[in-house]
Amino acid sequence: RSGAFRKSWAVLVDGKLWDAAPATIPMGTEVWIVNTMPYARKIEVGGQKIKVDPQIVEAVRQIVPRRFSGIRAQRAFKPLAGGRDARGGPVPYILKSAGVASGLSWTRKEGWSRKHAAYVSNRSDRQAGEQVLYPTLILTERIT
User: Fold this and answer.
1) CA nearest to 126, candidates 81, 94, 85
2) How far apart (Å, rounded) are the C-alpha atoms in residues 48 and 11?
């Protein structure tokens, strides 16, 4: 509603924020497209309901090879270092308490459903003090 998620997309070239025109990105570099909001991962995996379909990064990853045959696209969950999101919050975001497995599930065919009741996650990467991993589209040149 605030537009913060939309404003929080960033382009990193070889690990550094890229503010110049995309056409000026040098050949042979690794390009990351990432959303810096702390809840971006929840949206990507379908753990939080939003107006648009989840799996935004995955959908783009599937489109890239069809439109740009010389580009290899991967989706990964990556740590980020230093910066601010669109609301001014710190990046990386450090979990204040254990993450909650929402139990929500989403498929393009069936939409939203609940697999199980929400519960506090036991996963080591979801505990208080851990850094959030951000869904990242990684673009590299396809070597032929």
Assistant:
1) 94
2) 24
The domain limits of the chain are: 4-141
Q: Whole-model pTM?
A: 0.80
Is the model's pLDDT at 48 over the cut of 90? Answer: no
Residue 82, Cβ neighbours under 10 Å: how many? 8
Handedness of CA 51, 57, 63, 68 (dihedral sign): positive
d(CA 42, CA 24): 32
| pLDDT tens digits, one per residue of 14-24 | 999 999 999 99
Alpha-carbon torsion 46, 38, 36, 9, what sign? positive
Identity of residue 12: L
